[in-house]
Structures are given as structure tokens and as C-alpha cells.
Amino acid sequence: MTDERLWNRFATLTPYSWRLGLCVAVVMCSGAGCSSLMTRNANSLLVPSSEYGATWESPVAQYARVRHVQPGTVASEAPPEQAPENIESVIARAIGVGEQTEEARKVFATAERTYQDARGLREAAGHDEKELRRAGNLFVKASKQYLEAAGHWEDSALEEDALFMASEGYYAVKYYSRVSELYRELLKKYEHTRHLVTIQRNRFAIAQMWLQADKQRSQGFWAFNLTDESMPFNNRFDKALAILNSIRDDDPTSDFADDATMLMAHSYLQINKPEKAHEALTDLVKLFPSSEHQFVAHMLLLQTKVVLYRGPEYSGVYLDEGEKLIRAIRRQFPDKAPQESGTWDKFAKEIRYLKAEREWWVAKFYERKDEVGAARVYYREIAQNYYDTPFADRAFARLNELKHRPAKPTQPIQWLVDLFPDDDPVKPLIATSPDSVIR
Length: 439
What we know:
Elements: H1 2-13, H2 16-35, H3 42-45, H4 59-66, H5 87-95, H6 99-125, H7 129-152, H8 157-172, H9 176-189, H10 196-216, H11 236-250, H12 257-270, H13 274-287, H14 294-308, H15 317-332, H16 337-368, H17 372-385, H18 391-402, H19 414-418
Helix pairs in contact: 6-7, 7-8, 8-9, 9-10, 10-11, 11-12, 12-13, 13-14, 14-15, 15-16, 16-17, 17-18
């Protein structure tokens, strides 16, 4: 009954054209709803209007759309040198079988023959410049062949030997910069190589040569070497010291470790860098107690400590260390006493003089501030402990002049100071008894 009333009211108030349009819209919507329930096949899902966003194209259309795109490289289609290795090839290379390892052996054997030919030609050449030049070219060729063999079989004993022999070939023709680079690469990959003794000896010789050349003519960072293969590209001094430092780090127990440390210290002293020399000499004294350079290192270290003392305004640590070092030298090298005792006494007197001078400077500092009590302490220290220096008599004189003066300067306006309360010591927030203290 209610629905009939509503329909009559709707028919009365709504024009005929509106009612007709509403009926058509209802019919269309109902048809669309029914079609959504129909079964869909694969082709119906690939139309452009699909809610899944897929489109259907013929094979010809697909080719036309992608033919300008460069083909990508996948693992199955990659070139042999770029394709990822499988487990079989890794194992084969590790045990020394396969095409790459056979090629490495073949190239290594060729390099060996070239190297031996170069040695024989150089020995037979004598002073013939032309034959010596031919031998040098063969050494360079052999080094390149060794490097090629190393590239065919990485992480192997053959690569280790090939890198070493390549450096030997370059060393024969004095290409020391390349030799240094190859040694660095070899020790990075094979730090415990069986060629370490030869490498350390050659590196030490190269560093000596570079330092000697830099002593004759210094080469800075911006002085570039473009012609001499025996010298580095620039900064010769620092690169030589880097080699010496790596000799110590790579094999600190070798026969060249203490020699490298001593050469570093000597080189720093020559260019007036006592701080660096002090560091190297300290390492030599502490880390290489059985070194043949111990006595010379102790004496140079003593001189360096005196040089590093900057005056009475600065710390006296170097002077204290110098006194201890003199006692250690006398105790450790008694056989050197007949020849060096005078030198030791000279350094001991110089250090005592400098220490007395420093105490005198501190005493005068307090005296200028009218803190006579503190000044008297330092004057008394000089008079008692440095009686063998010129400052002792002056200290006695100052003590006599200051004996009637007050220890502290008088307060000029004491009445004003008394107006302010004294600072009480800060009390703890929680009182503790002696029994509660954790022992």
C-alpha cells in the first residue's frame, strides 16, 4: 500500500520525459551488471580496456615496437670472459686443469725462455752498448710475458712466481718505479711469499738509491719525472721513506727491518725533521734490541732529545728522558766508555745546565708575581740539586735577598675582602658513615 502511494506521488510530480529517461538508464545499468558476471577467457583480459592493464598485440606489432632496443646480456648468453663461473671451472682452475691454466703454463714457459736468453745475451755482451740494449729489450719482453701468464691463472703459485719474475726483469733494466709497484701488488696478494727476502733486499736498495739521488737534487711534489724509468714520477723522498716503512711493516723480523728504521731516522735528520727522527729512533731502540745500530741509535736519540727541548717556557720532559737515556747508555755500552765517556759527560752537563735554567726561569716567574714563598722553593732546589751550574750561586744570592719578605703578597683592600663570606666546602647530599664506604 505504501509503495503504491509513493508511485502515484512520483507520477504526479514527475514529467513523462523524465520518467522515460530514468527507465532507460535502469535497463542499461542492469545489462552492464549482468555482463560482468559472464565467463571471461584469456583474450578478453588482454584488451586495452582491461582492468588488469594488459594489452594484446600481434607478433608483428610486438617486433615493430621493440626492434630498436639493444639486446641485453644474460648469464646464459654472455661472452665466455664475462659469464659467471660455475663450480666446475672454479675447481678446475684451483687444481690446475683447464684451458686457462694450460695457457698460463705455456706463456710462463715462454717468458722463462725469454728471460734466460736476456741473461745470456747480457753476460756475453760485455761493454757492447748495442748488445746490452738488445738484452734490456728482452728483459722487458720477458716481464710482459710473465704478467700475461699471471693474468691467465690468478690466485695461484704460478701467479706469485710470475709477478716476482716480472719484477726481476724490470729490476735488471733499472725500471725501479715499476718494480716497486709490482712488489706492492705481490705482497698485497701473497704477504708470506717465499720471495720475501729478495724483495726486501731489492726494496731497501731502491730506497737507498732514491734517497741518495734526492740528497743530490731534491725533487718535490710538483717536480715531475717523465724520462727516467729508474726514478718515481714525483715526490721521490716521501716515496723512498714509504718503501722503508713498508719494509718494517711487511716483515718486522727480517734483517732489513732495523736497517730501514735507521735509514729513516738518518734521512729525517738530514732534512731537519727531528720529531720524525725521534719517532724512528725510539722504535729502533725499543723494537730491535739486538740490532747492530743500537749504540748509534742511542746517541742520535740523545742528541734529538736535546734538540727537541724548546726552552724554559716549555715542558722539560725531553730533558728528563735525556738524563735517563745517559744512564742507560753507560750501563748498556760499558765497552764504549773509553772512547765515548767524554761525549756522555758533555751531554750530561748540557742537560743539567738546561734543567737548572728552567728552574731559574720558574723561580723568577713566581718572584715577579710577588709569590716569594714559591720562588724560594725553586731557588732552594737550584742551590741544592744544581750546585755544579752557574745558577747555584745566583740562587743563593736571591735566597738571602728574599728571606725577610713575606711569602705571599699583602692584600691591599683586606677590609673589602672581609665583607664577603668564605666559601664553605660543599657537603654531600647523602651523608655516609665510615662503615658504609665500599672498600
